[in-house]
Write a structure and sequence with these properties.
This protein is α/β, with parallel strands linked by helices. It is built from ten helices and eleven strands. It has one domain. The longest helix has 22 residues. The C terminus is likely disordered.
Length: 385
């Protein structure tokens, strides 16, 4: 059996960053489906924080229809919801509570009828079969996959979701160090997801995407090199003191270092914490969420190593976020990442859009970066690495 794992498609993004709505992006994915027995979409299939669910489903319909038609006969699509499409599985999670609480395991199979939205996705993907797994899925003996959103509870980077989880945990008397089981993680994350979903459901204009990208804009403001407005300089100067105040207030361990190398190290350390807290006994753990593919050539192997020689793998994303792509298709954030898993083989990372011109992937009427690996890849670029 051949399995292709992709993550973070964000179909329906109002910022038009989802590259599968561009012919070059979709053709690359469809070409990779030849001979695939199982396609695993590892979270954030839909972008449900930019607007109503119906809009994201409408944008996804032609893409998913093409995917379902391209898959070989009898192929299966396994969807593992993440944070931006948590709404797909939320009704099933609520039903579990009403039916009498049964602890979440590492893999539950609500199936395609997890919600009305997943039933709609099932129809779009026909004739391919759809299954839904949550919070993760075992792909083979010793190979586990999870979107990776649970790492937001443990990461030291003060992102919006990290602070939201810290606030909820503080309110409930459950600090990050006490969050261990899947249910614990859902307890401190799901209320925030529900709030963001409710806001997005009422976002009837394009400002929903702008609000959802507030964390990225803040990162740019705090890390930009060169001349900045005085307000930006003042904010950057005050940031370490604000982080220290949050730590004293009980939000857990936080770091004011927002450099690219620290973002990589911190998120991988947080994912290692998730694996340890959940007790995932796997040789390989595949995740997404951070949009940073890896391990790639030149990465520090230790960052991606779990105890006893086990490995982390990140499938990357299918979004074109120009703020992170200063190195063109040499960037670890370049879209088109995937992981291939064959029976008895090791997971291997592939980059299906390497070499594709940025103009064919970038959002319409937006400036694009060079596609050369020799672009502005210097240490002062300021983008995550």
């Amino acid at each position: 059996m051949r399995t292709l794992v992709v993550s973070d498609l964000h179909l329906g993004a109002r910022t038009d960053v989802d590259v599968l709505r561009r012919p070059a992006g979709l053709e690359a994915l469809l070409g990779a489906l030849e001979g695939v027995d199982r396609l695993v979409v590892l979270g954030d299939l839909l972008e449900l924080r930019h607007g109503p669910l119906r809009d994201a489903l409408a944008a996804a319909r032609p893409v998913l229809g093409a995917v379902g038609a391209a898959l070989p006969a009898g192929a299966e699509v396994v969807l593992v919801p993440g944070n931006h499409d948590h709404r797909l599985v939320a009704p099933w999670l609520d039903w579990r509570e009403r039916a009498g609480h049964v602890p979440l395991g590492l893999e539950e199979r609500p199936g395609a009828h997890a919600s009305a939205a997943t039933r709609a996705l099932e129809k779009m993907l026909a004739p391919a079969r759809l299954d839904v797994a949550y919070p993760g899925v075992w792909l083979a003996d010793g190979v586990y996959a999870h979107h990776g959103h649970y790492l937001d509870v443990h990461v030291t980077i003060p992102s919006f979701e990290r602070l939201g989880a810290g606030l909820i945990g503080r309110t409930l008397g459950m600090p990050g160090r006490a969050v261990r089981t899947p249910d614990d993680h859902e307890l401190v994350l799901a209320p925030m997801y529900a709030l963001l979903d409710a806001i997005a459901a009422r976002a009837l204009d394009d400002r929903g995407g702008e609000r959802a990208n507030a964390s990225s804009r803040a990162w740019l403001l705090l890390t930009a090199d060169g001349r900045r407005p005085w307000r930006a300089r003042a904010l950057a100067g005050a940031f370490p003191f604000a982080v220290a105040a949050l730590e004293r207030a009980g939000f857990g361990s936080l770091s004011p270092d927002l450099s690219g190398p620290e973002l990589r190290r911190a998120t991988l350390a947080a994912m290692r914490a998730v694996v340890a807290r959940l007790g995932v006994d796997a040789r390989h753990v595949i995740f997404g969420h951070t949009h940073r593919a890896g391990p790639l050539e030149g990465d520090d192997a230790w960052d991606w190593t779990l105890p006893h020689g086990r490995r982390l793998h990140n499938a990357g994303s299918w979004v074109y976020e120009s703020m992170y792509l200063d190195r063109g298709w040499g960037s670890p954030y370049w879209p088109g990442g995937a992981v291939i898993l064959d029976d008895g083989g090791e997971p291997r990372h592939v980059r299906l859009l390497d070499g594709v011109d940025a103009a064919l992937l970038a959002p319409p009427q937006r400036s694009v970066r060079t596609t050369s690996r020799s672009g502005s890849a210097g240490s002062g670029s300021g983008s995550p690495t």
